[in-house]
């Protein structure tokens, strides 16, 4: 039996013109952008060719003698990411409740909560790290604070969206049966949100591990400090080992956290 496919919809001339106009606009934006960048392409290509023949082979010849130092710095980076993610996962809970429109029943409080989360997300982790290095000094605690504050903005927004999507029929049924606010919170709301809250917190930890690897460049501890020293000393063999360790550790964490999140949700 032959399958009869539905006839293709005829595209109107206006839709075709609209798509081509959007395509040309995007192309023109790219052309205008590259024309506005003052780059000596000849010199850039020459330097790129020189670096490929001089630097890249050294990156693929890691300095295994520095493994102890590199691994210690990587473990410190994992500590920074874990401590910062844990702090953010806790701090984001009240902000998520505040920003969820169905939790406060007040547009003013909800708007304030959303503004706080938006303001936090406006600062990149590296800028936060610079601010905290100035505040508490160049040490791993500055990195923990930068990760914690930066992650709170994202997690708070995700938590508020989870709260706004819960099944409110359960809450209404508990209210009708005479349950108080505490009972509704612990038996009607928290069981619905815990799996997704944990999943988002673990996913954020993956991101924070990557972010923590560069915070040391501004003095916030971790393996980024070794990256800076290796770059300053042109020690490309050690840089190759650092990159290899980062790739392996981040890949393992991605696989493990993905498996955990699949079991939770």
From TrEMBL:
<dbReference type="GO" id="GO:0015416">
    <property type="term" value="F:ABC-type phosphonate transporter activity"/>
</dbReference>
<comment type="similarity">
    <text>Belongs to the binding-protein-dependent transport system permease family.</text>
</comment>
<dbReference type="InterPro" id="IPR035906">
    <property type="entry name" value="MetI-like_sf"/>
</dbReference>
<keyword id="KW-0812">Transmembrane</keyword>
<keyword id="KW-0472">Membrane</keyword>
<dbReference type="Pfam" id="PF00528">
    <property type="entry name" value="BPD_transp_1"/>
</dbReference>
<feature type="transmembrane region" description="Helical">
    <location>
        <begin position="184"/>
        <end position="203"/>
    </location>
</feature>
<dbReference type="InterPro" id="IPR000515">
    <property type="entry name" value="MetI-like"/>
</dbReference>
<keyword id="KW-1133">Transmembrane helix</keyword>
<feature type="transmembrane region" description="Helical">
    <location>
        <begin position="209"/>
        <end position="229"/>
    </location>
</feature>
<feature type="transmembrane region" description="Helical">
    <location>
        <begin position="241"/>
        <end position="260"/>
    </location>
</feature>
<keyword id="KW-0813">Transport</keyword>
<feature type="transmembrane region" description="Helical">
    <location>
        <begin position="20"/>
        <end position="39"/>
    </location>
</feature>
<feature type="domain" description="ABC transmembrane type-1">
    <location>
        <begin position="74"/>
        <end position="257"/>
    </location>
</feature>
<dbReference type="InterPro" id="IPR005769">
    <property type="entry name" value="PhnE/PtxC"/>
</dbReference>
<dbReference type="GO" id="GO:0005886">
    <property type="term" value="C:plasma membrane"/>
</dbReference>
<dbReference type="GO" id="GO:0030313">
    <property type="term" value="C:cell envelope"/>
</dbReference>
<feature type="transmembrane region" description="Helical">
    <location>
        <begin position="78"/>
        <end position="100"/>
    </location>
</feature>
<protein>
    <submittedName>
        <fullName>Phosphonate ABC transporter, permease protein PhnE</fullName>
    </submittedName>
</protein>
């Amino acid at each position: 039996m032959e399958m009869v496919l539905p006839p293709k919809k005829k595209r109107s001339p206006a839709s075709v013109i609209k798509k081509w106009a959007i395509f040309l606009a995007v192309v023109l934006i790219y052309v205008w952008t590259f024309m506005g960048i003052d780059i000596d392409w000849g010199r850039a290509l020459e330097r790129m060719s020189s670096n490929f023949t001089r630097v890249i082979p050294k990156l693929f010849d890691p300095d295994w003698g520095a493994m102890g130092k590199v691994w210690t710095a990587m473990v410190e980076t994992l500590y920074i990411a874990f401590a910062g993610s844990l702090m953010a996962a806790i701090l984001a809970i009240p902000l998520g409740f505040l920003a969820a429109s169905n939790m406060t029943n007040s547009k003013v409080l909800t708007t304030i909560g959303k503004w706080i989360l938006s303001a936090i997300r406006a600062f990149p982790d590296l800028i936060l790290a610079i601010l905290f290095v100035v505040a508490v000094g160049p040490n791993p605690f500055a990195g923990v604070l930068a990760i914690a504050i930066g992650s709170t903005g994202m997690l708070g927004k995700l938590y508020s969206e989870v709260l706004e999507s819960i099944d409110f029929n359960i809450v209404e049924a508990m209210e009708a049966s005479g349950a108080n606010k505490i009972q509704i919170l612990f038996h009607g709301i928290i069981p619905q949100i815990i799996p997704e809250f944990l999943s988002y917190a673990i996913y954020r930890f993956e991101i924070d591990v990557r972010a923590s690897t560069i915070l040391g460049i501004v003095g916030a501890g971790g393996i980024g400090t070794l990256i800076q020293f290796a770059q300053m000393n042109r020690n490309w063999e050690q840089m190759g080992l650092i990159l290899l360790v980062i790739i392996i550790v981040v890949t393992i964490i991605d696989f493990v956290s993905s498996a955990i999140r699949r079991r939770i949700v």
